[in-house]
Specification:
By secondary structure, the chain is of the alpha/beta class. It has two domains: 2-93 and 200-293, Rossmann fold (3-Layer(aba) Sandwich); 102-198, Orthogonal Bundle (DNA polymerase, domain 1), CATH 1.10.150.170. 42% of the residues lie in helices and 14% in strands. It has 13 helices and seven strands. It has helices at 2-5, 22-30, 43-52, 70-76, 93-96, 123-128, 132-143, 148-160, 167-175, 182-198, 200-214, 228-242, 274-279, and strands at residues 12-15, 35-40, 60-64, 82-88, 215-225, 262-264, 287-293. The chain has a seven-stranded mixed β-sheet with strand order 3-2-1-4-5-7-6, sandwiched between helices. Strand 1 (12-15), helix 2 and strand 2 (35-40) form a beta-alpha-beta unit. Helix 7 (132-143) crosses helix 10 and helix 8 (148-160) packs across helix 9 (167-175). The longest helix has 17 residues, at 182-198. The radius of gyration is 21 Å and the shape is globular. The two termini are 21 Å apart. The mean pLDDT is 93.
């Protein structure tokens, strides 16, 4: 991440999902004269990040907010352009390990799943007014779960019989459909509901657009994703920014006037090494992509 993101030791960088501050520390250590703005929807994560970054004094500032509104958040803090933007998507280990978040099927807690528990609708509430068909659509679209219909039916039956209050209840409803790969299926169901609750894909799309807008020429955006939906969205957006032309292929020259804004730096997705996954098993599904902001008139 540091190799792709940090281009100026005195630059301004944004960690859009600051979490416990691990990436933010690495950025500040490698940009010793730089500054960092850390965002997060989770106020408890901001508290943790503040403790982790305390040694860096006035070189960082933290903000509670959604990276879908990145430009406005930065403008409020006097930053019109920055040198790098990092998105470490999904949720943090701190959130996963907190049963009250409801993000894990391995521990019992409320079916909440919100990153920001001060706003929005919890997953249990969302399920309470969903039809079986709509729930199946969510499981298929956001969890890529092929058995979405029987699983949705089982969850709705548990809901209607008053047996859907905790994450353990949700897991039992899924298990009642006898999935061939229990853990994989549970992961997909929890992922789908989490994405729906937090509007994750819509936020990522908005956040990427805002990141490109606030990057100065030569600045970089780095995205770390953990499942195919996030990675696919990032890959396609980067490709669109690098080659925005909408002219028919048979035309000899471009007439649409679309101007490229990014140069893709990772032609192939970057994945963690065996050593890294051995040290941190949760990194095994991580995929990193990076791109650089072009100057006006510059070709990719």
């Amino acid at each position: 991440m540091v190799d792709y993101l940090v281009t100026r030791t005195n630059g301004v960088y944004v960690d859009c999902t600051v979490g416990g501050g691990g990436h933010a520390r690495a950025i500040l250590l490698n940009a010793p004269a730089g500054r960092l703005v850390g965002l997060d929807l989770d106020e408890s994560a901001l508290d943790e990040a503040g403790r982790s970054l305390r040694e860096f004094g006035g070189r960082y500032e933290l903000a509670h907010g959604n990276f879908a509104s990145l430009a406005a958040i930065l403008s409020d803090r006097g930053h019109s352009q920055v040198d790098g933007v990092l998105f470490d998507l999904g949720f943090s280990s701190l959130q996963l390990d907190d049963p009250d978040r409801g993000l894990s099927y391995s521990s019992e807690g409320p079916i909440d799943m919100r990153f920001d528990r001060t706003a929005g609708e919890a997953a249990r509430s969302l399920i309470s007014h969903m039809s079986e068909r709509r729930l199946a659509d969510v499981l298929f679209e956001y969890g890529e779960e092929k058995r979405s219909h029987p699983i949705a039916r089982s969850i709705i039956e548990a809901r209607d019989s008053g047996k859907l209050d905790t994450t353990s209840d949700l897991a039992r409803a899924v298990e009642a459909t006898k999935p061939a790969r229990r853990n994989k299926t549970l992961s997909r169901v929890f992922q789908a509901l989490r994405i729906a609750v937090n509007g994750e894909l819509e936020n990522i799309a908005s956040g990427l657009r805002e990141a490109v807008d606030v990057l100065r020429p030569g600045g970089r955006v780095v995205v770390i994703s953990y499942h195919s939906l996030e990675d696919r969205l990032t890959k396609r957006y980067f490709a669109k920014c690098e080659k925005p032309c909408t002219c028919p292929r048979e035309l000899p020259v471009c007439t649409c006037g679309a101007v490229p804004t990014l140069r893709v730096l990772t032609r192939r997705v970057v994945t963690p090494s065996a050593a890294e996954t051995a040290k941190n098993s949760r990194s095994r599904s991580a995929k990193l992509r990076a791109a650089e902001r072009l100057a006006e008139g510059e070709e990719p």
